[in-house]
Records
---
Amino acid sequence: MKSLLATLALTTALTAPGLASARQVTLTTNMNAYGGDGAYLAYYVTDASGAYVGSLWMAGGKSKYYEHMSDWYRATGGNTAEINGITGASVGAGRSLEITLDLADALFDAGYTLHIDAAVEDMRDSPNEIAVPLTADGAGTATRGRRYIADFTYDF
Amino acid sequence: MLRVAHRWPGLLAALLLTVLALSGAALSLYPATERLSAPQAGAEQSVADLATRIQAAYPGVEQIRRAPSGRITAYWFEGGQPGAAVIDPATGQGVGSADPNQSQRWLTNLHRSLFLGDGGRLAMAAGAAAMLILSVSGVVLVARRTGGWRAWFAPLRGPLAGRIHVEIARIAVLGLLLSSTTALWMTASTFGLLPEGDSTPVFPAAVSGETGVALNDLALLADTPVTALRDLTFPYPGDATDVFTLKTEQGSGYLDQGTGALLAWADLGGWERVSETIYMLHTGQGAALLGLVLGLMSLGVPAMGVTGAVLWIAGRAGRPRLRGNAPASRAQTVVLVGSEGGTTWGFAATLHKALTEAGQAVHVAPMSGFAPQRYAHADRILVLAATYGDGAAPSSAKGFLDRLAKLAPLPGVPMAVLGFGDRSFPAYCGYAEEVAAAAEAQGWDRLIRFDSVDRQSPQDFARWGRALGTALGIELELAHCPVQPASLPLTLISRRDYGAEVQAPTAILRFALPRVSLWCRLTGRGFARFAPGDLLGVLPEGSDVARFYSLASSRRDGFVEIAVKKHPGGLCSNQLMALEPGDSVPAFLRRNPDFRPDRSAAPLILIGAGTGVGPLAGFVRGNARQRPVYLFFGMRHPESDFLYDAEFAGWQQDGRLTRLVPAVSRAAQPAYVQDALRNEAPEIARLIRNGARVMVCGGREMAAGVCAAMTEMLKPAGLTPAMLKAEGRYAEDVY
């Protein structure tokens, strides 16, 4: 377990395409019609103690805005190496984002939590917009966001 | 080169720049309205006080932000529902919606990316770069045109489009330089091309683990005035490891939610301060007045785009096509053209045609393409050079002097220089003279002596052609017919004859207004709009070359009037003098904006002799505002050639004319108009000190005499006619 986490930390992402014990997970995020520009979303995982483990995805390409996803920024120090290769476009109001990743099996039912921080230009910052425990049973269950995200679901 | 750097970015980016400028101008209104509408905090109020009030009103408050405009926004969570409002700092209560303004958001996205994402951002950045290039090249061009940096705001002359273009530019360029530079900086910052200063303090490794400190017990919040606040974020409810995050003008830090202690602090870096200042300068956020000024200046961009395009089209339209232009290497005669607006190309075309018909191989090229090493068979080089502004090179002659100075002269290939200009400018043919002097200094042989053509005079050009023909041993008749607007037949209504007794038959001819097409009326062309001082081109029977007469009436007078003197052997004046009411002549209008009274109320000193009094009488007739006007009128004998004698008395009575001073040359004591001026020297000096403007119309000799007299009279005041000309206060119309 410990060694596996070390591997995960090294690859910075928790995705493991070559890993035998991995499963394909689809993250679906539906946005509210919040009436603003495209939202920046930071997807990352913390362990049972609340410590940052790694990032899954960053929606939004301009690093100068990353500080507004304050929890993620605080955990990573804004280090863009954490999200190398897993960065996409920001997500417009009313749109949805679907990401498919290979996630290590060990991440499920082991006290890990998936967080999404959100921020929109000229609107409030919304750290911890979503905080959902990663469990096999929780797959397919929609979680409501606080401000910008209508609902979030992960599926196997 | 400079003009190319100005023209192409301007033409290519005109549309993009119009979108940028108009959206920018609209956006400049928001910071100002926000500043005015947002309730402002008092200078003494502390962040702790503000936060306490807001927390009382909205217990679930999570974040408080203060915009540079002073607007305070609070964000909270109440019963699982997010809420936000603009806050009145005095009460802590919400007073307005915190939702982003949708029209502002739309304009912002249009302004920075045309709604096209990063591609659009790059396009708009290219627009800003074009604006920067245009501003820099434009500044140099304006300085060159007005005659130096000190003359930045000197009065302008020339076609209206050009004047509008420069008038707007010399005011707006400051804002445009600032806006385009800051825009490029912000784009570079957005794309991560600039280092990002990071002044976020390191998150504390340990906190007290307690919660519930009263906001008033947070010392830093109590000490920080609201006016310095940027952002205050409350700890996440129920998370004892979280902290208060405070951002101010000075920096940012974390405060313990149990003890109120400052856990970490970092000052704002110098780099971030620079970035913030640039953001403020571009958006006007935090500098609303500057924003409004920049917005106003950017409104000039569409107007400059249109006038710039008009200038370009007008410059192109004037250039004729050359048939059978010989290659440089085979030409016997090389004609080099330095043209600004394109009219000199017309003269070059006439020269090309005449020489080609005389059996010569002629190569016509811009002066900027001067390449003597290619002129293998050249026997002579003819340079036709206009002058730009205060003696500068016209656009098609850029770099000529440098090249001339660098390259050795061709042995046995003489050069002749002909200047084109306008005698009403102080630097008449200044550039052409410089070229002639430089060629001589460099050792080029001279084919014929330097000569000049004033105001596209076909006569001047023909005279030079004859001299050239003599030097070449051929008969050369240069019948230059400038590209003329279509003429209309003008029908004579009435004529008044003068001067027969003094051997100077003169007439005031009044023609009916011709019918003007709708298109001309819409565009203000031709006879749709004219004023005294404009020129009437008359095409006499038996010649293609128009003769020009100064108009003595305006469109509003309802007729077209000129004063004509019969010249012995003069083709056109004889035909005009033979006209009877009902007869007509073909004529067209040419504007002469340089010889027109300004719109001020300063006194006007009008000086004219003979038929030169025509436009001056027109100015007096149009002086309904009763501006002080002094007219010095030179004539031969008051009984014979006192033009407008009947009208002048009436105009003096109704206040259009302050004083009329006649100068009679055939009297017991002959006096010319310059003598009359000298007699009134103290009065004239007084008027000029009071801002009077001088306008002279008549023959060349008379104008020279007047100028000499004025030079004497102005000397005690430390002024010269040239200085007045530079200020636009001394205008001449000389023939």
Note: Residues 2-27+38-155 of chain A form one domain.
---
Amino acid sequence: MSFVSIRDLTVAFDGVPVLHGIDLDIDRGEAIGLVGESGCGKSVTWLAALGLLPGKARVQGSVRLDGQELIGAPRTTLEGVRGARIAMIFQDPSSSLNPVQRVGRQIGEGLRLHRGLRGAQARTEVLRLMDMVGIPDAKRRIDLYPHEFSGGQCQRIMIAMALAGQPDLLIADEPTTALDATIQAQILDLLAGLRRQTGMAMVFISHDLGAVSAVCDRAAVMYAGRIVEANDIDSLFAAPAHPYTHGLFRAIPDLEAGRARLRPIEGTVPDPRALPAGCAFAPRCDAASSLCNSYAPDLKDQRSGGAVACFHPVQSSLRHMTQQEVPA
Amino acid sequence: MSPLLDVRGLVQRYATAKPLFGKANDIRAVDGIDLTLHEGEILGIVGESGSGKSTLGRMLLGLERPWQGEVRYRGQPMPAPGSADWRKLRADMQLVYQDPLAALDRRMTISRQISEPLEIHGLAKGEDARDRVAALMARVGLRADQADRYPHELSGGQRQRVVIARALASRPRFLVCDEPVSALDVSIQAQVVNLLRELQERERLTMVFISHDLKVVRNICDRVAVMYLGRVVEIASSDRIFSDPRHPYTRALVSSVPKPGQGLDGRIILKGEPPNPASRPSGCAFHPRCRHSDAGCAATRPELAEHDGRLAACLKLGHARPVAA
């Protein structure tokens, strides 16, 4: 059985469904990327799993961690999971840290809660964690406040806080989006290194496909509250099968491609209050047929590996053709 | 051909608040920049936070007076902020902001926000203004039925289109886009990038495109200036900068862009943090993070010099091109 198993997870806010049945398995030590545009449900999936959504959210389905059900679990159970077994880091470190508390104390909080460490013991461990995430001169800086660190260092502190509970799974929600290019590279390097070192599993939520491919083994692409394609990184990038994935890859400018005109996906993500009747991507899809407009395709395993939710997946022959097309 | 914008020896200095003891600290956000910008050109400015990109952009628009140096627009010196001449110039040059939600008034419908510059500059009124707004909305790809919406009812990409439509309302000839697509999703980002490129091609708009997203800069810009701690360390055509970067900082920056399918291999991971303008290293500001630096780099500040069809400021340029990249 997989370590984390999500089955038919749905979330609705004020009666508006935003997550339409997510199935996802994560093995121990595995790094999986969740890719998709804002509002597609990447973050909501994990906030729901950890019981972090506001009260008005209606969460149904099942999220099992080592067989233990988390949806609808009592608060005490969830508190034993959050931070201790599953930790989460967010996009904007400066708004996730408490500005009026010394960073050492903020990292130490996790140690006290999840590992019962206090006093000198906790302080030694905080120093070790700060060292581990690459904060130079930790001894001198343990008693500084968040504003005395740069953005990249604040993200390192966030990562140290997440590691304090020795989690089995780290959810990194756009961890490098707010950082400068060279610092982004440092943080990706750090996350990949920490995973090797600790063996923890990682969910890397990002819209940066390059970053996802750099640190993940596998990725799932989400659109309008559904997973539309999942595959291992190499196959996904070599042969995206869902028209949305395909379009996403084409829309990213390529450093090597010069100034060829970008090929955006026309239109916008549908309003969750007014989703199309069939496949949510159909209105933006070139391959859509009348079938797509009436029925939503299920995520189906493919013979060639991976899973796709599409009635008309992109053929590999066609993919080669589009790659060779002269840019408009 | 005379340049649209000519910048000489631009320096911007901010003083930090005087601490209780000791004296106030001087921060040179921009520290000596020369630039020329030709009509119809898109110049990219890349660099990390604190490198002075946005300060430079604001001085190019005359929103801030430089501490030293001069910006000439169409051969004329930039008028003082707030003066009548300066106000007239506002219609001609516009700033597209990074965060559309912060740049928009959340209690105003988007059609009103787009028509505001028309009223301010006395360009159109009543029916005429309504038509202009409708045309602007269509031009940036907003639907007519969105005219009465409020900013929070739109998606991030749509908000950025509103910001661009508003910037275009006064028919400017020069745009400074400060991270215009950073907050947008990939598929929408491509739409906005293409929109800006169309504007340049169709109307020969001149643009300065400030961004830390090198992939977008590569796609949209004719020329690129790389900034580090308030100075341009390398400037060349977009093709040159990205296919053959020479300054060690540019090389690290270009290599740090994750490429699908490449993993983490072959990237230059810089040590240390982006530098703090309040404590500028001596000599070449990049030397503490540079793997080619030596005592000379800590002592002498390199000036921009010609190297193979680009300008770069590095004392070790011979060494900056090692075989093992």
Note: DSSP finds eleven helices and twelve strands in chain B.
